[in-house]
């Protein structure tokens, strides 16, 4: 169902417009499609990094806390991993808020390798990179040995309304997709309508029903 609403690995313009309209009306914002696209790039970056961490031997995913726990048992493996994946360092023992929504929005891109953000180009994604990242990744109070850097206490972080409204973004896309799905035709209903057409033989009615149900209008009744 999702694939039909994407073009070249990206959401179609109508889908972005639906999100913009919904968020602007709900949150009294003045967002554009570009704002939403840029935010989606950031979520794709988070998703790609976490999925790569989860795929490594020695790490497990805590579904309840939405975190990859780094403990004494796998700390050595982790240190080796982040040497070649420095972008992953800040995710040590940090829970990913709204992970389910992020996975819903970005999961298919990752699976098909379409539209997924290049982790190496992460710093080019948004103008206020350091500030907006913290909106989606928050410290896990139950983590064992977190050593990630944090913002200085007096540093004022910029607010990203889209980070706070990710649930609305996901729900809006779900609603948009549901509204675009055509209802499934039932054979008996199609037959009832076609049977009312004058001058069609029973065989032609049968063929017409078959053509309409197959969705291929090139077939001939004769």
TrEMBL record:
Transmembrane segments: none
Top-level taxon of origin: Eukaryota
Pfam families, per database record: Myb_DNA-bind_3
Myb/SANT-like domain boundaries: 4-81
Biased composition (Polar residues): 137-149
Segments for region (Disordered): 127-161
Name of the featured protein: Putative Myb/SANT-like domain-containing protein
Organism annotation: Rosa chinensis (China rose)
